[in-house]
């Protein structure tokens, strides 16, 4: 099992006189090995692997091992490396990029780099390929590192000229992993932990970006209010099975590099004994807030970030930091007695008020306001949610000193029956609208009026949907014409306190 990362934590010692307490905990992320290598009866089990631009294909194969010294061009003179696994030593004179380039030129299938120091070696570090970059710089072939002890043992087998065959098993994508969290009241004498299958829940994870792209994802256990992150690179279009510690609070996030950052609500806990499903990046994308992004009023100031690109997972928020191909704007108005809106602020980002630049309201009275979020893809390519416009009408007054009030902005989630990884569903599929208030605001039970209009011609004509209410939300079925390709939505909701939302999503998702 490959070790993607281990987070160790020491809890704070809270002193009361001479007393305190200490806690100890670990999180493990154990991934499916990208590569396993064995020679005869010896398995080289401490690899760090960088998959190549064209990674080795799925499955097991035998490769003859050849030794190429420090991996410079001269080392390949007279050496037949084509179709083989080349073994080289780490070198200050020949850098990892040159070693990989020369091995690829020689036709090698795999490059194994032997560390010349203690511990494990990253064969292709972030100086060569920044995992956060939008476009990658993977090695030209798959590269893996061996520790000095294991590598020297392998070189000793090759040098005398004996035929040394390596059994290599490749997994070009990570199809499963384990996220394990365990915490103790004190540092245990034996800190090993062996979870049973009953200690784990299965989570089927689907990455459903509309275009192939590089992505990063993490899941971190929350302990005493603290958590960390150790992002795992992943394709933005992929399926994965995760095994996750039960009875654990998790924080989850994923990003399409330099395009879209998705985060869960503050904590998430998977029900014991169940199989759960988790999606990232898929439709329907639209403005969504959660416990990490709560719009509030403090005194006469509004502090609010309105993330514009929540994805298919209910409760997910999505931001587009560093994305120059998108247009986001948030406007806030005071609604005057004659019904005309008075513009208070026009923000060209998703932030209408921040601690540094708060939006200050003139009146402490409870008055009607309107907040409008408009989001559009400029040259950020995606077939869906081409433009969205969400308009909230609500009332707000100054809260008591020393307190804050959550703005009563009704949130809208959607589920669509049978949507595939390409964001398309059947022409008679069920669609459900799930309205809610954020924690700290009015109860979601106050929301009792929902409307849904559906267009199959980009808003030229509309069909008003008859909705049926159930525990899951308000549902109807599509009635798409044969030639329709996309579904555009216009949704409204209201609570019994006068708070409303209307939302239009152009090309919310596609049709099969």
Descriptive notes:
Helices cover about 5% and strands about 45% of the residues. The protein has helices at about 95-105, 150-160; strands at about 1-10, 25-30, 35-40, 40-45, 50, 60-65, 85-90, 110-115, 140-145, 165-170, 175-185, 200-210, 215-220, 230-235, 235-245, 250-255, 260-265, 275-280, 295-300, 300-305, 315-320, 325-335, 340-345, 350-355, 360, 365-375, 385-395, 405, 410-415, 425, 430-435, 445-455, 465, 470, 475, 485-495, 500-510. Strands 22, 23, 26, 27, 30, 32, 33, 36 and 37 form a 9-stranded mixed β-sheet that branches. The longest helix is centred in the N-terminal third of the chain and has 11 residues, at about 150-160. The protein is elongated and about 90 Å long.
Report on the biggest sheet.
9 strands, mixed
> Which runs of at least 5 residues are low in confidence (pLDDT < 50)?
13-17
Please give the radius of gyration in angstroms. Answer: 27 Å
Q: Which band does the percent of strand residues land in? A: 35-45%
Secondary-structure-based class equals mainly beta
Please state the average pLDDT score: 93
């Amino acid at each position: 099992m490959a070790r993607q990362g281990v987070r160790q934590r020491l809890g704070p010692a809270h002193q009361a006189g001479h007393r305190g307490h200490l806690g100890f905990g670990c999180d493990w992320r154990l991934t499916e090995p990208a590569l396993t290598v064995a020679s005869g009866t010896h398995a080289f089990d401490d690899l760090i692997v960088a998959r190549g631009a064209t990674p080795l294909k799925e499955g097991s194969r035998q490769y003859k091992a050849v030794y190429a010294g420090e991996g410079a061009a001269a080392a390949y003179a007279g050496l037949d490396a084509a179709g083989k696994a080349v073994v080289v030593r780490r070198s200050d004179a020949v850098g990892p990029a040159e070693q990989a380039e020369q091995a690829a030129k020689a036709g090698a299938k795999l490059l194994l780099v032997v560390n010349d120091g203690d511990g494990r070696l990253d064969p292709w570090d972030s100086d060569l390929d920044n995992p956060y970059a939008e476009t990658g710089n993977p090695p030209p072939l798959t590269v893996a590192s061996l520790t000095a002890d294991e590598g020297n043992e392998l070189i000793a087998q090759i040098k005398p000229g004996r035929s040394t065959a390596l059994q290599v098993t490749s997994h070009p994508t990570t199809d499963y992993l384990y996220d394990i969290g365990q915490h103790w009241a004190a540092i245990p004498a034996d800190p090993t932990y062996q979870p049973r299958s009953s200690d784990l829940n299965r989570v089927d994870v689907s990455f459903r970006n509309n275009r192939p792209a590089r992505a990063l994802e993490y899941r971190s256990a929350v302990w005493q209010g603290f958590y960390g992150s150790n992002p795992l690179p992943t394709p933005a279009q992929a399926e994965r099975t995760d095994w996750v510690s039960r009875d654990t609070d998790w924080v989850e996030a994923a990003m399409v590099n330099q395009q879209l950052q998705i985060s869960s609500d503050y904590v998430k806990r998977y029900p014991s004994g169940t199989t759960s499903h988790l999606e990232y990046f898929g439709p329907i994308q639209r403005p969504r807030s959660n416990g990490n992004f709560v719009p509030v009023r403090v005194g006469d100031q509004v502090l609010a970030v309105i993330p514009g690109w929540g994805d298919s997972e209910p409760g997910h928020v999505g931001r587009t930091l560093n994305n120059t191909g998108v247009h986001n704007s948030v406007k806030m108005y005071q609604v005057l007695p004659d019904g005309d809106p008075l513009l208070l602020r026009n923000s060209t980002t998703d932030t209408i008020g921040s601690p540094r630049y708060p939006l200050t309201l003139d009146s402490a009275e409870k008055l009607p306001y309107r907040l409008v979020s408009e989001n559009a893809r400029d040259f950020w390519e995606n077939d869906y949610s081409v433009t969205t416009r969400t308009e909230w009408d609500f009332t707000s007054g100054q809260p008591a000193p020393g307190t804050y009030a959550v703005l009563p902005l009704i949130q809208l989630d959607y589920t669509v029956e049978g949507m595939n990884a390409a964001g398309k569903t059947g022409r008679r599929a069920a669609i459900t609208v799930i309205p809610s208030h954020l924690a700290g605001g009015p109860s979601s039970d106050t929301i009792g009026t929902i409307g849904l209009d559906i267009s199959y011609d980009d808003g030229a004509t509309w069909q008003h949907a008859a909705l049926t209410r159930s525990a899951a939300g308000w549902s109807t079925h599509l009635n798409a014409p044969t030639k329709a390709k996309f579904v555009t939505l216009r949704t409204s909701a209201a609570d019994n306190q006068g708070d409303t939302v209307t939302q239009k999503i152009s090309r919310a998702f596609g049709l099969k």
